[in-house]
Amino acid sequence: MQSSDDIPGETPAAPAALVAEILASLRKAEGTDVGLLDILEKRIVTMNSGDTAVADALKDIERLASKRGGSPGNGQADHD
Questions:
Q1: Residue range 52-77: mean pLDDT, rounded
Q2: Residue 71: pLDDT band with limits 50, 70, 90
Q3: Are 69 and 41 in contact (CB under 8 A)?
Q4: Contacts of 74 (CB under 8 A, 6+ apart)
Q5: d(Cα 3, Cα 66) in Å, to the nearest integer?
Q6: What is the radius of gyration, based on Cα positions, of the chain?
Q7: Whether residue 66 has pLDDT greater than 60
Q8: What is the 3-state secondary structure (H, E, C) of 12-80?
Q9: Residue 46's pLDDT is what?
Q10: DSSP label at 9?
Q11: In contact, 22 and 28? CB cutoff 8 Å
Q12: What pTM, to 2 d.p., does this model score?
């Protein structure tokens, strides 16, 4: 990714815009775990993460892992 600092006449992207651009790029990348990315975006990769952001993210990740934990075909797993 080229920095706007390298482009004459361009102003640097605001932090929130840069984060949004990176997240959008990750969403398009093949092999990205979108469920995990959603959690990280909601809990960690934010300009205003709260005091409990890491603990909340951990709970969400554990929930996602539990949801995915069943074996394929038994009706319980969600392998996205």
A1: 83
A2: low
A3: no
A4: none
A5: 39
A6: 17
A7: yes
A8: CCCHHHHHHHHHHHHHHCCCCCHHHHHHHHHHCCCCCCCCCHHHHHHHHHHHHHHHHCCCCCCCCCCCC
A9: 83
A10: T
A11: no
A12: 0.66
